[in-house]
Amino acid sequence: MWPKASGGFSAEPAELSTPPTRPALNPPTGVRDFIPPSARILITGSNGFIGARLVDCLLAAGHANLRCFVRPSSRLDRLRAVCARHGAEATVEIMSGDLVARADCERAAAGATVVYHLAAGFDKSFAGSFMSTALATRNLIEASLATGTLRRFVNISTFAVYSNRSLPWGGVLDENCPLEDSPVERHDAYCFGKLKQDELVERYGRERALPFVTLRPGTVFGPGKEGLSGRVGIDTFGIFIQVGGSNILPLTYVDNCAEAIFLAGVTPGIDGEVFNIVDDEVVTARAFLRSYQRQVRSFRSVRVPYFAAYLLSAFWEKYSRWSRGQLPPSFNRRRCRAEWKKTRFSNQRLRSRLGWRPRVSVHDAFAAMAAGRGS
């Protein structure tokens, strides 16, 4: 068995041939009064890895008046399959557009009571990340406020915004920990864009009374997710390099994550709050990688100890400065601390304020991944 958050480090889970089963999702008291089933709900990024699972949660909970916003180039197989499973093809509206275009945001937000903003840009440049993430979010917020119907704006952020510099080795990272103060030095355009997005949402909350909630998922995994998180290691040099090994992963199974996001949109009395999404079980990067290689996909890997990786990152930074950027500082000490430093994670606020519980264990999650299908 995988240990709970209060326990020690885990070994790999035993193999399981059946996909996970979940009890019925019971929303907290007062949800129906706050967000009735007939309310219009907008989901951006609705055809994504998490977005499609969120649509599944909403439909399962009786919310059928959904508007799913997607990019014009998006493949819709996953989203259409979810709608068909619930018999909701006639009630779910699929709308395509670009959030950078204000007119598209106005069309998407029209009449929306809840906005789940999952769409994110992954541009490698800082300017591109700002435009596709922060600028798009500003346009969506402006359009949502203009409707006069908005009750909740759910802002999906990321664990990448945390710094982890000031935490002691093995310390606990929660919602009160410092955010990254120099994403440029970390060479992380995605972190930069998400920091700007979070700042923007908080400012609209202060100055324009935006009724927002911010969620920061950890490492989201599950069937349909290609590749391994950078927190497990890097696959840059032709072989997978695991950094550290004893470092704990802030894991959250995709269904558990989607249910937390669902609850953040429909639970009253939590405006302005921030929640980290991590499951209960303590899983090391070494245990996760071994289980993944045995049950999901086999490949070669080598392990580099954390402190060796930290020294190599310092050398890489120095050489990058010496070469005047000819070698980009892709590996640096800020990234090393943020992704591979031994840290524990808390989900206490999410559990106490939203009544959320992770209903799929890591043990069962690997079974679903090995089977190649979701729960």
Chart the SSEs and their pairings:
Layout: H1 31-34, E1 41-44, H2 51-60, E2 66-70, H3 77-85, E3 93-96, H4 102-109, E4 114-117, H5 126-147, E5 152-156, E6 172-173, H6 189-208, E7 212-217, E8 219-221, E9 233-234, E10 240-243, E11 251-253, H7 254-266, E12 274-277, H8 285-295, E13 301-304, H9 306-322, H10 333-340, E14 344-345, H11 348-354, H12 362-371
Parallel strand pairs: 1-2, 1-4, 2-3, 4-5, 5-7, 6-14, 7-12, 8-11, 10-13
Antiparallel strand pairs: 9-10
Provide keyphrases for this structure.
375 residues, seven-stranded parallel sheet, alpha/beta, disordered N terminus, 37% helix, globular
Amount of beta strand: 5-15%
**From N to C, what is the helix and strand string?**
HEHEHEHEHEEHEEEEEHEHEHHEHH
Low-confidence stretches: 1-19
Number of DSSP strand runs? 14
Numbering strands along the chain, what is their spatial order in the largest sheet? 3-2-1-4-5-7-12
Helix content: 25-40%
Task: Give the overall shape, derived from the CA principal axes.
Answer: globular
For the sheet with most strands, the description reads: 7 strands, parallel
- Rg (C-alpha, Å): 20 Å
How many helices? 12
- Which structural class is indicated by helix and strand composition? alpha/beta
Mean pLDDT: 89
Spatial gap, N to C terminus: 20 Å
